[in-house]
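Box 3.1 A note on notation
Throughout this textbook, protein chains are presented in two layers. The first layer is the amino acid sequence; the second is a token string describing backbone geometry. Keep the layers aligned when reading.
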Amino acid sequence: MYTCNSLMNTGFHYLYPDSTVDEALDLIKTDESSPEGVFVVENQLNKKLVGMVSSKAILMGVFAEGKVPAVTSLREVMDTSIVIAGEETTIEEALLLMLKNGVQCVPVVDRQNRMVGVLSMDMIKNSANIRFSWSRLFKSADSHLFDTDFERTREAYEERMEIELANLLSMIDIMQLKSRVAAHEANLNIIRSSIFEEVNNLKENLETRYFEMKDAGEENWYLKRDLFERSRHELNEKLYTLKEPIERLAERDHPAKVDGPIRSMK
């Protein structure tokens, strides 16, 4: 059985959140590997997929708003609710995903949400190795094939956030473990507790917001999503602010050089 990583195009192009709309327009004109638009990754090092910019988004979000493409960043217009496939997703599942969401291609990501390729309908159609019938394809389809736009948007967003949340919480656990060892050896447990008190409060709030969003009905899902996004932003911002004091705390050779914003919110 063929999977996405056996057929996907690994020579894909991408831009960054701070890239300009002008750069995206140039890429759309010359790049035929992604008929949906330009994929946006966090940075060149990790290639974590964070969004996509389509011609329609540029038309409605830039030109219709009177913005200047040369100074408008992709962060302002990119769509963060992206339909994705995993490396081990089968070709049939990927094709159903495209049909279900009305797209011609999907970005392929690994378990860390890093973009590793692009798979399009044309690649599947033109492959000499892939043979399937439409009847067999639709027999394998689940009952959600013809879900509404809201259901598709919600499913894609929650699947992506589940991966991101798991990665974020794992990162916090590792940071806490490293700092716990260093703080114990240097007798700095009070300082360590002060640092992570805020982080733990924000982490618990984020988890609560996530499950509230998962349980929400259609009538208030977008509100719950916005609350979750706000909590996610607050935690990421706090981790960025505390990055240096946490790193210094975890550095065994310099245990006494711990300063920075470590006040408790309580």
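The CA atoms of residues 243 and 260 lie 10 Å apart. The first strand starts at residue 14 and ends at 15.
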